[in-house]
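Entry:
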Amino acid sequence: MSSNLNEENVGGYSVAYSRDDTYFPIYVMALLAAVFLGAAWFTGGWYWLLFAAATAAFTYYNLPLLETGRPTIGANQYGIFLQAFGLIRWRAIKEINLVPIADRAMITEQLQIVLNVPLASALVVDWRKQPLYRALMRRPWRLDKSGFLQVNLEPFDQPAAEIHGTFLRMWRYYRS
């Protein structure tokens, strides 16, 4: 495998966050953080700093949603890659499922990747150790207690069924 394989240079099929108006609240919260900071400056009230810190933290956490040109999840001949997680080799994957999740009044779809080996031996490249400035930002994946790797497919620029179908086709082709 190429030694220059990193999160920005993965090749193959990749999916990024979609660029639409649903991320408008991130910009609003950034503006509110600036307004609260200005209020703290002009009034001298320290309590405004609490509001500024909370809204700035929300903005900082959700900043990756605005990185629409960066590959977030995808697959290549080596396996499935996830931003801030790594590259999972094809033979280490037992199942790839598309699961509907009821969340309040809506249903979102989640990709569940089940491994048949321990995580340490499943990863070809490990990207879980992130730089300090990215450590507290949103990640597209979650590793639950039962060992399933879960990826919420709602914020991506392609339909969930298409992402799942492409992963399944590539998994069947490359693991044989």
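The chain has four helices and nine strands.
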